[in-house]
Every structure is written in C-alpha cells, then in structure tokens.
Design brief:
The structure is a single chain. This protein folds into 3 domains: 74 residues, RNA polymerase II/Efflux pump adaptor protein, barrel-sandwich hybrid domain (OB fold (Dihydrolipoamide Acetyltransferase, E2P)); 124 residues, no CATH class; 208 residues, Chloramphenicol acetyltransferase-like domain (Chloramphenicol Acetyltransferase, 2-Layer Sandwich), CATH 3.30.559.10. Helix content is 25%, strand content 23%. Helix 2 packs parallel to helix 3, helix 7 packs across helix 8 and helix 7 crosses helix 10.
Amino acid sequence: MDVLMPQLGETVAEGKITNWFKSVGDKVAPGDNLFEIETDKATMEVPATSAGELKEIRIAVGAVAPVGAVVAVIADGSGATSAPSRPVPTAPAKVPFVPAAVAPTRNDVGPSVKLDPFREVRTPERNFGPARLASGTVVTPLARRLAGEAGIDLTRIAGSGPHGRIVARDVEQAVGTKTARPAAEPSAEQIKALYSERPFEEMPLDAMRRTIARRLTEAVQTIPHFYLTADADIDRLLALRADANAAASTDKEGTPAFRLSVNDFVIKALALALQRVPAANAAWAGDRILRFKHSDVGVAVALDGGLITPVIHAAEGKSLSGIAAETRELAARARAKKLKPHEYQGGSTAVSNLGMYGVREFTAIINPPHATILAVGAAQRRPVETADGGVKFVSQMTVTLGCDHRVVDGALGAELLAAFKALIEQPVAMLV
C-alpha cells in the first residue's frame, strides 16, 4: 500500500517531513503515527490507515514532497509490491521559489494592444482546444493568445462566458483596466551586489515566510484598500474588565477561572458590530460577494518568523470568558504549529493588535478573501475637552478599520466602525 502526502488545507501544496516514527521493517497497525509533516501553517502527525510492515521510506526527514506524492510503502503480507521505488532524498528538496503573478498598481501602464472585436470568429488558432487554468477555469484559445500578447495574467480575470469560461471580451476589458504583467523584481544577486562591501547574513525563506510574502503582496496589489480611524474611550471597559477579573473564581492552586484582556473585548465588539451591520460581514469571491450569518473573527498571532490568524467562530454568541479561553488556547497551539486547517482558514474579518508593544496606531493589510481588518493600538491617557470647556484626561484607544472597497464602501465602513466604537465605549452592551 502506498502512503501519500496528505492534503492539510485548501491552499497547501506541499509538506516537509520533520520526523519518522517508524523505521523500515517495523510492524504498523492502523492508527500508529507514521511520520510528522510541517507546512507553512501547522505541524501534524500522520497515522497509518492499514496494518502491515513498513517496507520502504521514499521521503527522508527534512525533504519536501507535494501533496499526493508517495512517501512510503506498507506491505500487507500478501506479497504485493508497489511500483519501483525512487532513491530516498538525503537532503531537503530545493525548489526554486517563483513569485505568483500579481496585478500591478494603478499607475502601471500595459502595452498598447488594438483588439478587433471580430477576431474571435475570424482568426484561426493553432491550438483548437480550450485550455484550463489550475483553478479549473476554462480559457478559449483566442482569449489565451490575446492575454499573452497583452501581458495579462489570466488568473486575475473573471470569465463571462458559459460556466465562467474566459473569452476574448474578458481580456479586452482587462487590457482596458491596465491589468498588465508588472515588471520583474530585482534578483537576489542584484540586491546582494548593493551590499557587497557590507557584512550580512543570508536567511533562507521557509514555507511560512514565502507564503506571507506572496499573499500580502497579492493583497496590496489586488485589493483596493481604504482606511478609517477612530479614537474610543475605554475607561468603562477597563473598569468592567477589572471588576470581572477580580470576581473570577479560583481553583485550589489560586488560579483564576478566566482572565479577560482588552483584546477579548475587541473581538466581541467587532463580532457584534458585524451583526449590527451585516452588509459588512462579507468576503470577496471573485465574481460575487459572500455574506455570512455568523461573525467568524480571525486573531493575528505572532510566531517566530511569521504570523498566523486562528479564527474564533461565531464569536457574536460567545461569552467574553469563552472568547478569552479559546483565544489563548488557539494562540498556544498556533505557536506550537498544532492548528488544524479549519482553525485558521476562512473567517469573515480579522483583528491585529499591537497595543501591547506600545504602538499608538497603524494600518493592517487585509487578509483575502476578508473584506475588513481592524488594527488596534495601545490605550493611552489623553486630554479631551469637556462640554463646559474644561479639560479632563481619559483612556483612549485608536483603532483603524481597513476595508476592501469592492465589498465595503466608505459609508458602510464608517457605519461598522461607529457600531464597534459604541460597543467598546458602552461595554455592558456586550453582556446582554
């Protein structure tokens, strides 16, 4: 029986084997852990699904294999054998990183291409069959040729033909909106040449950093971001938090049953705000918008060499103490790379909080396909004018809502931010 590299998530294309729990010749029973794999997001132990003897290991520790590749062979005792084996790699596979094609900024100007609207009928093609992209989208031969001439990335085009097929008019529209291929980035050797006389250390990119670089570059270049900023008074929130933490029951060792953080209130407030403004509780899906019933809030967690965003599902219906416990548990497993794919994929929005580092305010990049992200700064004592013309000091927190203009317009984003601010400033509303 062939043992295959499993699929650990919709966006995961390969895995790195970090440990073999069994050796060649060992007996294997269903449920026994065979090996451990690491992706850009998680580490997972892979169990055997059948009994037998581990006859062969094809992928060594430290090597990377694509999803579906044969990593080992288990003999079931019947004498049946698998296909001839390949040599076992003894070092991590070195796969050159090729950046994904991305759309340019609005200032990029593509090549001037004059398109004849009748060419779909009159121009013969050498390749008469339609092509299919990796996403499954079908492209007509003419559309494929025109895209090549114009430098258009077909993966950025939504097809208008039957069953979503990309046809010539789709490419014409793409040329009209200047979605041409951007200029290539400088190579590593070119960058290194700039610092040839300065000491430096090269740090190879791991799978997580490559994924972060690719996804955030695509996000900045393809999502029309705009930002809304507000200051929220949190004196009431801090008082309620202190009272709740003081009233928390303790166990025999004196450990409190829960401990609320300001971020727990932020997650709850954003979840409830999305319920009050349901049109903003959405995601961009290429040729349509998805609106969600529940508020699934991602929480950015910093890791060594990167970050990950585990999701608090249906946060609008969870208590503050429940959110606190779940957030801490997910963060701990995220740092140990033990999250399961459904725990960090999806979601309808995200929170990025840098207040604990003393950052006053910042803007965050939207994590596609989300339509919003909330950047939270540090709480500070600030002077404000009173109604009678005096001055008093209050605790304020600056928050910045990033919006995808394709989904959330300015007024809708302002409505969502106002709903969030009202909940933060009157936190007792989160308890009812």
